[in-house]
Amino acid sequence: MEDEIITQELLKESLEMLEYRICGMATNAETALKEIAQLKPDIAILDIRVEGNQTGIWLGNQLEIPFIYLTAFNDMTTIKKAIKTKPATYIVKPFKNNDLFIAVELAISKIKNTNKITVKDRDRNISILVEDILFAKKEDQYLKLYLKHSEKLLRANINDFLEQVNSNSFIQIHRSYIINKNYITAFNTKEITIGKNNIPISKTYLKEVLDEIY
Questions:
Q1: Model-level pTM?
Q2: 199 and 101 share a domain?
Q3: How many CA atoms lie within 13 A of 6 on its CB side?
Q4: Could you list the residue range(s) of the whole structural domain that residue 189 is in?
Q5: N or C: which end of the chain has fewer CB within 10 A?
Q6: pLDDT number for residue 78
Q7: Residues 98 and 167 reside in one and the same domain
Q8: Both 46 and 83 in a single domain?
Q9: Cα 100 vs. chain centroid, distance in angstroms?
Q10: Where are the beta strands (DSSP E) in the chain?
């Protein structure tokens, strides 16, 4: 336990030196889960080995925010268990400040990928992950969102949509179309292909589109 407290203090000092703000600290996984729910941090750093009945891996399984594992373990069994919880990355103890900085920035970059928007689905509202949207098409007062396995309607114009998703992954390529450039499978100067869909590029947006995807 003493080693854990020393590591925690070193981690706190390093994060503050790198100009990150710490909103909470805990040495117990159950306590940490409660504090994360109350304090709502952007990311969490979890030591796989913590005191108490539950591990850092258990805690990682409970979280929806991006998190980083801090560990001295390098055995395959532990690593495989940790990977299944989908961490942003991990840091091996003893850590260097440069490694810590890279890990935190990687986790921060994941925040955008967990953005959600609310759409109408028949008679109810549901949340969908922004990253699951392949492209969107303007239809009257709505945008039709094309997802991997379905289509949804969002009452918004193109500018509203781009403001809501707040992601560099989306670019407007036509007055009626926005695409998620992460799903582009082919393109030329006239259209972009996403899966089986060929989406037109208008001359107005051509230069901007080519700058984005080249």
A1: 0.55
A2: no
A3: 6
A4: 116-213
A5: C
A6: 78
A7: no
A8: yes
A9: 18
A10: 44-47, 67-71, 89-92, 116-121, 124-129, 133-139, 142-147, 151-154, 170-174, 177-180, 186-187, 191-194, 197-200
CB atoms within 10 A of CB 72: 13
Counted residue by residue, the chain has a size of: 214
Parts of the chain with a pLDDT under 70: 1-4, 51-52, 73-75, 112-114
**97 and 7, same structural domain?**
yes
Q: Among candidates 118, 105, 113, which has minimal Cα distance to 86?
A: 113
Total structural domains within the chain: 2
Determine the Cα–Cα distance for residues 29 and 34; give it in Å rounded to an integer: 9
Q: Among 83, 113, 143, identify where a domain stops.
A: 113
Whether residues 11 and 109 fall in one domain: yes
Same domain, 61 and 149: no
Q: What is the reported pLDDT for 75?
A: 67
pLDDT at residue 202 in the model: 95
pLDDT at position 4 = 66
